[in-house]
Fold this protein.
Amino acid sequence: MDDLRDKAERLLSGMENDDDHLDNDIEITDEIEQLMRDIEKADRSYRLALDDPYIYLRISLICFYNDRLDKAEKWARKSLRLKNTFDGFFLKGRILHEKKDYKGAIGEYDEALKYKDKYIVHEYKYRALKERNMPERALSSLEKALEFKTSADLISEKADLLVELGEIEEAKRLYEKAENIDPSIKRRKKKVDQLLEEADKKLLPEKYDHILKLDEKNIDAWLGKAEIYWELNEKEKAKKTMIKALENTESDEIKSKLEEYKREMKIASDCEECGGDGDCPNCEGSGECVDCGGTGDCPDCEGTADCPDCSGNGKCPNCDGEGKTGWFSNCELCSGTGICQKCSGYGDCFTCDGTGDCQNCSGNKNCQQCQGSGTCQYCEGKGIKLE
């Protein structure tokens, strides 16, 4: 047995477990092949021939480097039978990861972290969780990896996860941070392209909303969203999507598509009142009262309820309540009465009768013509002339 141990030490002595990389190129020679056969022959189910866990671990590494994953896993198990180590659990996790057993790999990474809290384990655990489509847990592991090392790649990968979780604004901030660190990072564009592909496959127009939050000028997203509405026979939504697109980006392609939709819908002419955009001409689609600007306050007294002529004091503004403009002549405005003629001396706003509310919207802020809908009442928001 000592001869076997000496042979193993001689053949494997120069090999260390570089757990930060695990990417060494180590060839399995004929001698190493024979060594593995000899050790396997000497091992028994109840007891391993060699009491050194690191010999088994090194053999596992050699098999791992040479893509003999089943053999690598077997030798890693033997190493862990002798002694639980960080290297043993991490290597076994990497082997299972390569075999696409992500659940098993995560368990081994968790065991490894009980012995050492290392960046590389958190990174691989994050990648395994991501493969299992567990974005919340993947984000937690990625954040722990970022505590050890900040890189543009990892920051942009975190942004990708946040997009999946719907946290678009924070994702945009991280994409910008990553691009400031490394201008060659094109992760945001790659994510947008991925989302476009997913949205096209799923035929859900709402899927394009994440893309448009990331890039409101993305012509492909606007066109894709409209096209799906069109295919779902929601043609009015398709047209309005193109109108909305033109508010965010000038594009001949979008203009052309809008005209195509109008022709297909047999729209003869635009509504003269709204110009074909479907918005209420009085409030331009805002839904707010044009007189009070959506405040609900009387435009004459701005909600104070005071008469705008006398500022609420009831006195004639021409003679300041004196009734005369000279020694002997009565004030022509108030005929010598001295009281404000607009409010008859009460001091209340004559437009709103002292309520302070806008009389056109009754204080509810809504446009009188469209009742706050923002939609043109002449064409019912269709943008086309109704017969």
